[in-house]
């Protein structure tokens, strides 16, 4: 979309600046306890927060949470907020689902970590196969670790070095995915801190929805795996073209690479994730964040043929550390939560509620956008909804980057929060949980509409 000098995404810049200023002032004035607590207690943290990116939320300073229940959270100043961010998917099934909370209480009485398996581990493996398909599973703490470890296996069993990723992709903190396309060439993303390795020696960046570029990269014969989300999610959301994911499967098979599907964000798609809903056939399956109901847990699974290839490789390699695994991963608390979440929370009934609510949200936002006549659009993948301040649909990471409007989005995010609605901070993502009510959804739609009215009148 071509912007005039005085507008961003169809909104006058002076209106955006006015909204941003007023909402920042309102946020500060209504959170005196938060401000005082941060001023007195945050100086021992690097950058004043326990994870540096918590400073990147659009508010003037971070919100301090007192408690979270269901699909609401309360900050230390007493503001009760409808939570559609839900830990950016980590709490997609709601905060502390009762079966998971009960499992935590029970497990806490009998030990937190053993470095040995439990019966719940065996139950979890069977449930993972029931939910996601025929894979041989391993447990990690984060999806970043799961992707990292699975890539080691891919390189081991193929004897190849490189991984194909997609421009604008998100796979956590995996170094190999921190590349981009620049003038048609793969390069290390320039914003990385302390990076000393040329990541273009490890990865090839292609455009999402471009099978020709993928095949061109595969022809070199040095690609161990194609690592992709089924939907690009951490930028402005991009859906796969019809046939694209099936095309990746066919190309991976043709050129002797493994297809890795990262479902960490797309578990919102429905029961079994996007892979289950749409019948994908990955060699490696990865999911994290909400898979254990909010307990830090990730899983990665290998198809039986890949698992057998790994066993053959593993039997022949020299003894010593594989470079995969951490001491606290696969602990009994993770398995207690996995078993509870997979069996009692991640159900067809809960997904039906989530998808109906998300459809209600997407329809309401789309109607508001149309009524105001702004050139925006809304995308939904199961329980995940996103408004994008540009025309759509988007086709790839380059288009997604162009569609991102940081100044406008930051102002909208703070305005929503001041009116009692929290959405994901670094894009415009909203999740509907099994405990999100229609009243909360309608309140978010009405609030979004009020903000658009303020920006346009």
TrEMBL record:
Chain ranges passing through the membrane: none
UniProt key word Heme: no
InterPro entries (alphabetical): Aminotrans_3, PyrdxlP-dep_Trfase, PyrdxlP-dep_Trfase_major, PyrdxlP-dep_Trfase_small
Cofactor(s) in the UniProt record: pyridoxal 5'-phosphate
Pfam families associated with the record: Aminotran_3 (PF00202)
This protein's record includes keyword Transferase: yes
GO MF annotation, one: transaminase activity
Keywords, alphabetical: Aminotransferase, Pyridoxal phosphate, Transferase
Similarity comment text for this entry: Belongs to the class-III pyridoxal-phosphate-dependent aminotransferase family.
Protein name as it appears in the record: Aspartate aminotransferase family protein
Originating species: Ruegeria sp. PrR005
